[in-house]
Amino acid sequence: MITEDHKRRIMEAVDAAFETQLSFTQELVRHPSLRTREGSAQDLLHEAMASRGLEMDRWELDAGELATHPGGGAVTISYDGVTNVVGTYRPASERGRSLILNGHVDVVPEGPSESWSRSPWDAPIIDGWMYGRGAGDMKAGLAANLFAFDAVRAAGFEPAGRIHFQSVVEEECTGNGSLSALMRNYRADAVIIPEPEDDMLVRANVGVLWFKVRVTGNPTHPREMNSGFNAIDAAYTTMSALREVEEKWNADRGSHRYFENLDHPINFNFGSIAGGDWPSSVPAWCEFDVRAALYPGITAEAAWTELQECLAQLAGGEVPISAVATKTGFFSEGYVLEPGSEAEALLERTHRHVYGRELESFTTPGYLDGRVFSLYADTPALVYGPVSEAIHGFDERVSVESVRSITKSIALFIAEWCGIDERP
Question: Start and end of every Peptidase M20 dimerisation domain (predicted)?
Answer without folding.
Answer: 204-315
